[in-house]
Records
---
Amino acid sequence: MKINALAGLLALSFFSSATFATEYIYRDLMANTIPAIKCEPLAEAKENAEKPYKLKNYSKKFCQSQGYGWHIDAIKDKGELTCNECTDQKGLQKCYIKDITVACKRIKPGSVGMLPGKS
């Protein structure tokens, strides 16, 4: 009974080691968020532009725009806040984050599983 359990653990550890062999392709991107739709007072516009949700959401979109399989690895630089005054309404602004740097990664083709056409 103990030999079967030991053999099972040995087989499991042998086949699970392949998961550590996954290779990734990395790419750094720099992009801007989109300005708000409506004009707001400066303090409110800054607060809405710097929400952590927006940074996380846009960073995810930047990586996904590279194609299938790309996802976010890390946010390297949170960028800088930039505000533009609305032309039709004085005193109101539209703010966005400029130059966000994101590290994206995807699994290197052929590094995991069987290659097509090879047995």
Note: The first strand starts at residue 24 and ends at 31.
---
Amino acid sequence: MSDERGDAPKEEGAQEQTADKGKEKRVPTYFFPNFLLVAAMTVFCGPAALIWAPLSFAGACFAMSASIDKSDRNYEKAARNARVARILFWTNFIGLAAILLLGNYGLL
């Protein structure tokens, strides 16, 4: 709507779009945790790393894809790839913990 001075009508969404353009969304990519998990599994697990380490490597690849999408300002795709990387990280972390605990009790 125009006001009394005869100014042109303003769109409500225009201010929000300009405010969001300057901000960069924060999307954690989980690259370093996945990469460190690959290194930890190869050092501590030996042959068992052949089962779990490929999932961590896939998590690192999804994390790299998320960081590339984030740099391209495609935040929705970056969030999806980062979510997959996070799921793979926690799956592998729990697997590594189980392997180490079972190995310490002589069950593995």
Note: Residues 2 and 10 are 8 Å apart (CA to CA).
---
Amino acid sequence: MMFKNSVKLLCSNFDKVWKLLVFHILSFALCAALLCVFFDYFARAFDTAFTDSTLNQMVESGTLYGSKLADGLTAVVDFIIIFMQAVFINVGIGIYFVLILFIVLPLLLNTGKIVICEMMYGYMSSCQKQSFTGTYLKTLRTSLVYSITKLFYSIPFNALIALSLWGLTRIQNDAFDYIMPLAIVIVPALLMAFKETFNAGWAPAQVVYNQNIFKSYAIGMRAVLRRGARVFSNAFIIFLLALVLSVVLGLYAIIIILPIISPLFHIFEMVMFFSSQGMRFYADADTIITPKRLEEVDRIEDAKYII
């Protein structure tokens, strides 16, 4: 039901997809502008990596045909490694690149998450529509604190996901080439679902209860653990569908999927939190969802958290 209600809310609030997409485009454009200071340097590093990794020989469209997919994924990972090595020939420029790509960009993108959750809180609680810009300015201080904290909190999860992808492409075995499509979909989907389970209640709790960042995380985790298996399974299904479509349809599918998957997860987190807390919410203008009350989903030992 969480997935179904999330999709229903996504459809009834599709304007937020476009608003978040514009915000993401502006965030990427700002970071690209900052990187353009060393455009020639990065262009040479890109050309070197593109040639040496044999990425130029790979087709752009995705396919589930074993060896071709395995070669393509290996070429992508090799490209990233060679590109980073070329960038860090000049250590100062390399550090600048990392700061912009892995610090500034995630900070900007994460501020948008609080904005969407705040807008969804208004809609789900009272069917209220809010402007993106006004909500962004209103929540900017909270968003920045959340973004900075989450940036460092996510490092172990992101490192584990990156390491798993690197490890899969390092396996040299002809038989594994035909298992690669399955592994490259299931392993990252499991790890990303695991990460989502530990993050799903954080932003909603911050928005609904307006507590400090650490208290909000504790409230959010209690909400997640009430329906932990459902949260993990729903997150896994969403990631699995997104990855399968990306592998099957290739680059063009990613261009379509990415703008939708981000707001879908923000909405999914709000639905999970409302449902776990036993809070009624609007799924659309004519439908109100009534989850089980909090005391019906809590265990006896958790009863102290009701008050």
Note: The chain has a mean pLDDT of 83.
---
Amino acid sequence: MSIFEWLGESSNPGPVGRAEFGPRKRGDQTRFTVLLRAFLSFFLIGAAIWLLAEPMGIRGLSAYLYPSLGFLVYCLIAYFVHPEPDESNMGLIGGLIDHPFRYSDDHNRFLLFLMIFLMPGRFISEAAVDTCTLIGNAARKGPKKAELE
């Protein structure tokens, strides 16, 4: 933060985005979208495992422990942290240039970066939660009477 940003922000503060914590409020999902998202998320996880195994040459199963734990923590953070930048204060020329008299645009750009960084993990974790909910609902209902006879 430069002296110009500190002086400029004290006289003309800009709006700053926020971050919400907790599971996101979402509407009901159809079975098709839940299964499609589950398939895509399993494909992404499989691609990451392939990337570790094939090009990087990791063969031992114990070598997957720390990347798996890191990925689990990343997905948990992505599921529970929702950054929302204020898009009206991203800098000059739509965020391409840093505003020389504001540091609040730096906060908004960081929130934007964090939002983009967490999107894949949020997609995978929400797909996993939706899939578990779908399986739980199907198990709770049980088979129909016609199928039992």
Note: The two ends are 73 Å apart (CA to CA).
